[in-house]
Amino acid sequence: MLNSFLCYTICMKKSTIKHARTCVYNVNYHIVWSVKYRRKVLTSEIEGYLKDLFQEIAQEKEFEVVIMEVGEQDHIHVFASAHPKIAPSYIVKMLKGISARKLFLKFPQLKKRLWGGHLWNSSFYIETVGSISEDVIRKYIENQKKGDS
Q1: In CATH, which of 3.30.110.40, 3.30.70.1290, 2.40.280.10, 3.40.50.2000 is domain 19-130?
Q2: Is 140 a residue of the active site?
Q3: Which residues of the chain, if any, have pLDDT below 50?
């Protein structure tokens, strides 16, 4: 009983918990992808534009970009949060696809550094991010016992 109360207290009393019509959730992702050919083309001007653009995309597509940073002018780190109905691959597809198109329009000099018309590498790295460790969850589940009848 104490474990149930403790997990409820830990899991449900956080400011990161979001409430939707059919669920309560805290779904977060760390996403990383690079510029094609690892070209160092993401200047501070482009980074500023991307930060605003990612917020616009996220708002329009109904997910959240909590924070975004450019690393070494050739890759992107995004911490995103979304409703469970939104696939993580959809988040990546929207951020990469829309940003590439808009960056090429706003900064046409990018195309000169990248041949083939692609800004982003086609692959990406993604991991889920939780506020409670896997060990804590495992122990909580292992300690659940069915009521004695």
Answers
A1: 3.30.70.1290
A2: yes
A3: 1-9, 147-149
